[in-house]
Structure formats: C-alpha cells, structure tokens
Design brief:
Elements: E1 14-19, H1 28-38, E2 42-48, H2 63-74, E3 78-80, E4 93-97, H3 104-114, E5 118-121, H4 129-142, E6 145-148, H5 156-165, E7 172-178, H6 186-192, H7 197-200, H8 203-213, E8 220-225, E9 233-238, E10 249-262, E11 267-273, E12 280-285, E13 291-297, H9 300-312, H10 318-340, H11 350-371
Parallel strand pairs: 1-2, 1-4, 2-3, 4-5, 5-6, 7-11
Antiparallel strand pairs: 7-12, 8-10, 9-10, 10-11, 12-13
Helix pairs in contact: 1-10, 3-4, 4-11, 8-11
Amino acid sequence: MTDQLVNTVGDKALDVIVVGCGLPKRGMGWYHLIQLLEMPNSNVTAIVEPFFLNAALCPNPPAAFTTLVSQLESAGVTCTDSITKLAKFTTDTMCLIAGRTADNPKLFQECIEQGATVIYLEKPGAPSVDELQEMSDLADAKGAKVYLGYNKNVTPYVQKALALSKTVENSHVTFCHNNSYKTNELNECFSRNSEGMLKNMAIHELALLVSFFGVTVDTIEEFNLNTHKLFTEKLTVWMPGTVVPNDKYISDFSRLGFAVTTKSGTSVSVMADRCGGNVSFASVKDGNGIEVEKFEFPDAESQKKVEALCAEDPEMMPYFFVQSDDYSVLKNLVVNSALDGTPAESVATIQIAIEALKLAEYFTEQANKILDK
C-alpha cells in the first residue's frame, strides 16, 4: 500500500461501492477499500461513510480521513454520506457493507433498493436473526446474491485442520480465536462491538461450525461451557463517553471457551480471547484426547513478518496484517463469481450466516445461564 491511491481497473471489472469506510488504518471498510483499489477485477466507483462525511454528525472529521477523501476524489471515486445520494445502478454492482452491525439492515436495504446485484456483508450481518432473515428475504425478492465476510472459511490453517481431522479416527477439533486488545482497551472494544463477543469476534468460528460440522441450534445435543477463569471470563466495564450521573456500563465476555456435541455425535470446541494475542490456532486431537497437530495462524515465520509490519506501522490494526491474504481471497472469489455468473465457492452465504447468528444467540444465552447460577 502506498500513500498515493490509484483505482486499478482491468479490462473486465465489476463496479464496487464500499459502504461504511471508517477511519484509515482502523476501519474494516477502509482496509477492504485499499485492497479493492488494487484489484484489477474491481472498479471502485464510490465510498459511503454515514458518519465522517455527515457534517451534522461529524463537523470536524480526523485529518487522516479528510486526506483519504481528497485522494479518492482525485482518483475519480465519489465520496458521500448516503447511498441514496448516488444515481441508481444501471450495471451489475457489488456493495461491500462494513458499517456498524446495528446500521447494517438499513444500509443493506438502501443498497438493494439502489440496484445492487451482489452484497458482500461484513459479519455478523445484523444485530438479530430476525433482521438478517428479513434482509435475506429482500435479497431473494430482488434477485441479489449475498455473501458474508467470514474469512476463516478459506484461511489455510483451518483448511489444514479440517483435512487432517478427516484422517483421524474420532477426531476432535478445537478452534481458538485470539485478539490483541489490552485489558484497559476492553471498554472501547465492548462499546464498539456492542453486539457481543459471540456475534462479533467468535462468529467466525460459529460459521465454521455451521459450514463444516453441521452444527445448528436444531442439531445440538449438548453444550458444555468451560467455566474456569482461564477460559471464560465475563466483565462489566464503563462505556467511554458517558459521565456521571449518566455514566453507563456494558457487560461482555473477555474470553470464552466451550464444546458442543450434535445429535449425530459430532463434537467440536471453540475458544475466544480478546486479550490472547495475535496468534490463533486450530488443534486436532485423536479419540484419546491426544493432540495430533496444531495449526497456528500466523505461523512463526508469518508472525515475524507481522511483528515487523506492526513495528513499522503501529497505528495499523494488527489483524489487518494477519488476515490480509484471507480478505483478498474472499473478495476475489465474490467479485469473480459476479463477473462469471457462478456461485462463490467456499464463501459463506447469508443462510450460513443466519444459522451462525442463531448459534451466537443460543450460546450466549446458555453461557449466561451457567455463569449466573
């Protein structure tokens, strides 16, 4: 990535609009934008940023954002605060929606009504199952395809673990998802991701459970929460920006560990830790509970590269460096499928996302019941 933005467009490219850009080096939408600008199969025609481009809500946007807008406009990319201010789409257009989860249903509807034929929706898609189902119904009615940005469906360490597990009798796979927040950053993390850990962070693993293990709310036989504090901890923290006497607090899991078994006997485990560091993994154990192999992400070599990149650019969210290749693979699969008129293989559909969100709500309820006893 360079300081000068260029919209690289090849001979065959899909029109793309990024909805919910966010701040440079912080927002997921921004990182998607940077990669899309470098992809010759995509033509970024506009960005929509409902907050930082709305003078009433944000009269003095950060300098980094105003610089970004200036560069984008110089590259021929329209910048606006609402998709309704753009002309109706007359060609196949993909809207990549990376807004706040609570805002996604409205943004989604506006994109569909504007004529989007493909939606790439950041996880978990919506705050609730009902809202995500309504979005799916609307897309079906309009003939639009919807994919979710579950990068772990295509990441190599997961694929290696899945492949090995099929060769090990009575295997058990554990997926561990770590973030690198510091404890004193959890109030900002909890507030910004107010939908909760299971709908936000661990939703990737829940999508894996749906996609590859047949786990749904209807197929669950047993849910076992690891209540040891090393694996599961729920905190209540102060919400930034609130002051006495109207200060507010928010509760969420800082870490969570559980195992689930289906009615057909399939068993799989998930661990998630907001302060666990940059390295996640998938572990495969045999029928005796002995680990056969652990696949880390990033691995030791990649981790050295990530650490060097983080040191070089400490303002960048570390997971952008860690998951960069996965993000690129997912977007290329979706864009190429739209150009070729074929399904995007391995990419989570909105139906998978609905089942994953159902799991998030169910597991959250079950975990809270156990912890509140």
